[in-house]
Design goal:
Blueprint (H helix, E strand, L loop, with lengths): L1 E6 L3 E12 L8 E14 L3 E15 L6 H5 L12 E16 L5 E21 L2 E24 L2 E21 L1
Antiparallel strand pairs: 1-2, 2-3, 3-4, 4-5, 5-6, 6-7, 7-8
Length: 177
């Protein structure tokens, strides 16, 4: 892992990386996982601040498959039944914010973000003595925004806002022989 960054009067950044690898206890049962976080901010003039960031992860894994009863009874517990089972996945989220304070202490806050998710899984399933492999693909995309305006009013605040989100989801499952 690695974490670093800096902060000054007019801006700053943060970078964090994390990676893990595991070997598993059976043949073909390894995996790895990686994470990334990147954040930053910057003052633009005396009353405006920009912020943004990227958060993501990626992973792969292998599945050793099911043990046959004969292998289990013979003590062959670590042998992989199928070298093709496994999968991969990942997600990335990108976000940005603009915050502006007016001299009257009124504040405008604009935010936008985008998310992308992908995964693919291969798994062999034994049913009624027949082993079949399935593949499942999942793809997701999302976009969002929010805008808010806040102003002092007497002993409190008054605020108005608007936000929205749009998503696209595609999931597919195939039976592979």
């Amino acid at each position: 892992w690695l974490r670093t960054g800096w902060r000054g009067e007019r801006g700053g950044t943060l970078l964090a990386l994390d990676g893990r690898r595991e070997g598993g206890w059976r043949d073909h049962s390894d995996s790895w996982l990686g994470n990334l976080l990147l954040r930053g901010w910057r003052r633009v003039g005396a009353r405006t601040r920009l912020e943004g960031g990227l958060a993501s992860y990626a992973a792969t894994w292998n599945s050793p498959g099911f043990l046959a009863v004969a292998d289990y009874n013979a003590g062959h517990l670590t042998r992989a039944a199928d070298q093709t089972d496994g999968g991969s996945g990942g997600r990335a989220i990108l976000q940005g914010t603009l915050l502006h304070r007016f001299p009257s202490e009124t504040q405008l806050d604009l935010q936008g973000w985008a998310q992308l998710v992908r995964s693919t899984v291969f798994l062999s399933i034994a049913e009624d003595g027949v082993v079949e492999q399935q593949e499942e693909r999942d793809r997701r995309t999302a976009l969002g925004f929010s805008a808010s305006w806040r102003a002092p009013a007497g002993s409190g605040d008054v605020a108005f806002g608007l936000d929205g989100r749009a998503e696209g989801i595609f999931t597919e499952r195939d039976l592979l022989m």
